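pls design
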C-alpha cells in the first residue's frame, strides 16, 4: 500500500425533476446516462450547482504488483530451467506444477540441497 496525495472535489448540485411524467423521465434519463458512461458533464449542465468544495487529501492505493524473479543459482532451492518447474522472470503456472511428477531423480537432487541437520530430523521422524 502506498500513499497518494490529491485534491478531493465535492460538488453539491440540484436537478429539478419537474411535475409531469415526461419531465421526470428526462431528468432520470440524464442521471442514468451519466452513471453508465461516466461522463457527468451533461448532468452538471442540466443541474444547478450550489456549492463546490475542494480540499487536499491523502489516500492509500494498491501498489503495482511486482514481478517475481527467480534466483540465478540453486542456492535457495529454486534453481533454473524446467527441472524446478519455474522459468526465470515469469510467474509459475500452478496448474502445470500440480500435474507434473518430479520422479525419484528430481527428489534425490532436491535432497542434495537440504542441510544435513534437516535430513537427520527427517530420518528420526520416519523411524
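designed seq:
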Amino acid at each position: 500500500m502506498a500513499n497518494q496525495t490529491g485534491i478531493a472535489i465535492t460538488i453539491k448540485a440540484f436537478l429539478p425533476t419537474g411535475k409531469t411524467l415526461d419531465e421526470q423521465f428526462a431528468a432520470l434519463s440524464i442521471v442514468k446516462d451519466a452513471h453508465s458512461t461516466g461522463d457527468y458533464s451533461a448532468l452538471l449542465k442540466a443541474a444547478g450547482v450550489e456549492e463546490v468544495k475542494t480540499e487536499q487529501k491523502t489516500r492509500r492505493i494498491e501498489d503495482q504488483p511486482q514481478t517475481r524473479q527467480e534466483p540465478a543459482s540453486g542456492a535457495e532451492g529454486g534453481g533454473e530451467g524446467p527441472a524446478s518447474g519455474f522459468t526465470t522472470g515469469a510467474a509459475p503456472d500452478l496448474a502445470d506444477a500440480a500435474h507434473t511428477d518430479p520422479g525419484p531423480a528430481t527428489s534425490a537432487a532436491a535432497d542434495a540441497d537440504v542441510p544435513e541437520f534437516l535430513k537427520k530430523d527427517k530420518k528420526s521422524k520416519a523411524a
